[in-house]
Design goal:
250 residues; mainly alpha; MetI-like fold; 2 domains; 13 helices; single chain; elongated
Length: 250
């Protein structure tokens, strides 16, 4: 839909005129101008799109390396201080980012990571929500299966990779998918830890599009929506089962 047609429908929003905004499912004068502008004439958009992908991929990869084994360890092993550690995880999960922001900023500043993508990635890697959600699924793995595997000579590593991960697949996929959706649209962390606009993700770029660029803003939002949408469609079954099972177990 062309900019002139969009402004005609949305004039009460942009110009303060009386009445209500209108919308048509199909444009009267279809045009690809806005799509071409986003895809070919806006290098800043794609630069920030790849910033978003780097942040999201870094956080999700880190959670695969750290959160999955941590959830397995808390769920399947008994050790001194286990309940205390689990309670700390719950406390951190319930703590808003605003409470932790200053301490995180000071630590990141001390180690020289502020104003780098690592300033957002590193705290996100150790998010406690994923551990909490996967813990519920790993704790439901029957002990008899693990004992049978041990009798057959499986070590703890093989138990984790060949028994724990397959049986906890629903919890793992659910946790990582929810984390992807959160990381892809995060706003507060980039604002707090990133000063250079060249490091900004799309979540900070889209709100800065000027009001007169309505068509461009809609096309940019559509392109930004596609990766989460495709990933959600691919993992929707596991996500639904994971949320339902997690709600019952809680």
């Amino acid at each position: 839909m062309g900019t002139a047609e969009l402004h005609g429908y949305l004039s009460p929003v942009f110009s303060g005129q009386e009445g209500y905004a209108l919308w048509r499912l199909f444009p009267l004068y279809p045009t690809l101008k806005n799509v071409v502008e986003v895809l070919f004439d806006s290098p800043e958009f794609f630069h920030m799109f790849w910033n978003t992908m780097k942040l999201t991929a870094g956080i999700i990869s880190g959670q695969v390396l750290f959160a999955v084994p941590a959830a397995w360890g808390l769920a399947r092993y008994s050790f001194f201080g286990k309940k205390l550690i689990y309670q700390i995880y719950i406390l951190l999960m319930m703590t808003p980012f605003q409470v932790m922001m200053l301490s995180e900023y000071l630590v990141l500043e001390k180690i020289g990571l502020n104003n780098t993508l690592w300033a957002v990635i590193l705290p996100g890697v150790f998010s406690t929500f994923s551990v909490f959600l996967m813990y519920r699924f790993f704790s439901e793995v029957p002990e008899e299966i693990l004992e049978a595997a041990r009798v057959d000579g499986a070590g703890e590593g093989r138990l984790f990779f060949l028994v724990g991960v397959p049986l906890g697949r629903t919890g793992i996929v659910s946790a990582l998918l929810l984390q992807f959706l959160e990381c892809f649209s995060m706003i507060e962390q980039p604002i707090a830890f990133l000063k250079d606009k060249s490091l900004y993700p799309l979540s900070l770029y889209l709100p800065e599009i000027e009001m007169g660029q309505t068509g461009f803003a809609l096309c940019a939002s559509l392109i930004a929506l596609l990766p989460p949408l495709f990933l959600f469609m691919a993992g929707s079954d596991d996500l639904a089962r994971g949320i339902a099972a997690g709600a019952v177990k809680m």
